[in-house]
Amino acid sequence: xxxxxxxxxxxxxxxxxxxxxxxxxxxxxxxxxxxxxxxxxxxxxxxxxxxxxxxxxxxxxxxxxxxxxxxxxxxxxxxxxxxxxxxxxxxxxxxxxxxxxxxxxxxxxxxxxxxxxxxxxxxxxxxxxxxxxxxxxxxxxxxxxxxxxxxxxxxxxxxxxxxxxxxxxxxxxxxxxxxxxxxxxxxxxxxxxxxxxxxxxxxxxxxxxxxxxxxxxxxxxxxxxxxxxxxxxxxxxxxxxxxxxxxxxxxxxxxxxxxxxxxxxxxxxxxxxxxxxxxxxxxxxxxxxxxxxxxxxxxxxxxxxxxxxxxxxxxxxxxxxxxxxxxxxxxxxxxxxxxxxxxxxxxxxxxxxxxxxxxxxxxxxxxxxxxxxxxxxxxxxxxxxxxxxxxxxxxxxxxxxxxxxxxxxxxxxxxxxxxxxxxxxxxxxxxxxxxxxxxxxxxxxxxxxxxxxxxxxxxxxxxxxxxxxxxxxxxxxxxxxxxxxxxxx
Length: 489
Known about the structure:
By secondary structure, this protein is α/β, with parallel strands linked by helices. It is built from 14 helices and 24 strands. Helix 5 (119-133) crosses helix 9 and helix 11 (383-390) packs across helix 12 (415-424). The chain is globular and about 60 Å long.
């Protein structure tokens, strides 16, 4: 499917995977345009750097001149004016996942990272391991597509004339006309499976439906392939139990094929040993912390080793790994107050984020400021688990549920329930009505030494820009502004 110099238009281009695909298509020679209802960093910045125009809002005129192909993002549904125009005019259209397969995966080695948590970071780690190995063997030079900006590359995509293609396998649905998960289009030659939990409550009825999707993915791996699977989840065990290829477990269990040993934190760096089938294999250090990150790194190391990447390259890559944008990214340090942006979407991810911050900032007063925005957090199915995760912070602020009117009333999460449950446990928690009230409260109550984790999988009404501005104004100067990533989730 090669169409050099032809025009593709992408509806919903600011999604993390859509923006990455836009960059890949541009490298392949397509002329790329796109549209979205709102653009926000980091993907809006990426598209601006690529000089790919973003039309806002959605409108028929955005398809003039008529494109040769339209890629419809999975967030786009019937009623969207551009989609309706495409259907009326019979303009050829496809999905992100199908275009990735036809344009980039056919004839390559497809290395897929899947799971409820850790996909983006693990994919970034694996790509950086391959990139490091390519210094001595150019055959390892990877193409990749990641659902976030990998700091080591300052990009979320790359295209090389080699066989390895590393990509994040998303279990979310594909398009309005294809309700199966995206990862079923990627036909992995090797697969990492990190976690399997109930998520995406808007498209999956229950945990069993989620497990069915992952079992189908496992069923696509050929006999000659490999699966590297987390050892600490019965759901993962169930999903890989009928694989036709070898399955190598990783984690802390005594019988794991890739076993983590002697984990310690020294000078804000993680140190551990990996045993391979009971035999010492590699000593590793990494400038990010958190047990979940050690698991992610071990999974990436295991898959790379099984594909022939030398251990020395794996050790060197992890030693210099720099994480991913919006995965516990430090966005500002102002008068001793540290502001962090994290892409929070699920109670388990929030728990691991706060645990990692405890290791990174021992003794600090830790604030968790949460916008319930993901299709899972907007629903009431995880109120108890969310309470347990947020209870690990010292101060909790909950915003209103994002677009609560779009969730069936009987399913809407009630932030006041979570706040009350936290207060019943003696925790300091409050719900505030809007971004202005949140910023005002923080501006009045933050102290030197505090760490503020702002948790949302969206733009959170501009808090990432507005809060630093208010704090700098409060302190009467612009000193202490910093950017950079410390740990990943």
